[in-house]
Amino acid sequence: MAVATGRSPRYPSDLRSEQWALIAPLLPKPAADTPGGGRPEVWCRRVVVDAIFYLADNGCKWRALPVDFPPRSTVFGIFTRWRRFGVWDQVHDVLRDRVRVAEGRSPEPTAAIIDSQSVRAAETVGKGSRGWDNGKKCGGRKRHIAVDVLGLLLVVHVTAASVQDRDAAFVLLQRLRLLYWKISLVWADSGYDYGRLLDGAKRILQVTVQIVRRTDDMTGFVVLPRRWVVERTLSWICQRRRCVRDYERLPENHEAMVTISMIMLMSRRLARPLPRAA
């Protein structure tokens, strides 16, 4: 049985009881409670998740975690182990389905919107996984995302910033089609208007990619149908300081951080009290 740390909530990122009630049942059983057995966990899981949320929200170094959290080696070890075993994805997907149902939609999406965002990379990002985005004048990595019509994350794929949107799009669409077989329509901006991509998505994946274009009479910032949804999601992700810049040695760790940022957002949304009837 985990030993309680006696830590009291003190940071904005700390889990509320309602959030923990949503997340705790979705985490894997402790090894000591499985048939194979294992060592009992020393640290309370809620405190470990609080530490990971703190780092994602504030963007500090792993070594700079406040002393009222477990040791950074313990927190980082659990973060990476759960990433390898798909725990973060599982928690995220269950919460997303619940948000969709709460919004009156089916848990299984049938359409998606894709886009990308280049982020600067810190010195901890290796040379082999970083590049230069000449269009955005940004050196680092690029995250390619697919969201549903509510703006909830479906798939995230991280590449070097030098990778063109249309080149990464087919991999993104493959993941999307594999995980969400009902999706047959995807909206995208003109950066994805490439004949081989559109034809290949239709012929191989049975997905229609519809380009949402700006018209000639549009000047300045204009809210475009469907495209604003994914832009808002990118803004949500950047509310977590760890996602404003890429600090992760591995692209998979940055994908996990993006997923965690959406877990934080959705768990807070689901934990809100229902509005009182008039």
Defining traits:
single chain; 38% helix; 6-stranded mixed beta sheet; 278 residues; globular; alpha/beta
Structural summary, described in words:
This protein is of the alpha/beta class and 278 residues long. Helix content is 38%, strand content 14%. It is built from eight helices and six strands. Strands 1, 2, 3, 4, 5 and 6 form a six-stranded mixed beta sheet that branches. Strand 2 and strand 3 form a beta hairpin. The mean pLDDT is 90.
Largest sheet, described in full? 6 strands, mixed
Report the span from N to C terminus.
Answer: 46 Å
If helices are DSSP runs of H or I spanning 4 or more residues, what is the number of helices? Answer: 8
Rg from alpha-carbon coordinates? 20 Å
Topology (SSEs and partners):
Blueprint: H1 17-23, H2 45-58, H3 72-84, H4 87-102, E1 111-120, E2 131-133, E3 138-147, E4 153-160, H5 165-179, E5 185-188, H6 195-204, E6 208-211, H7 227-237, H8 251-271
Parallel strand pairs: 1-5, 5-6
Antiparallel strand pairs: 1-3, 2-3, 3-4
Helix pairs in contact: 1-8, 2-3, 4-8
Give a nutshell description of this structure:
38% of the residues lie in helices and 14% in strands.
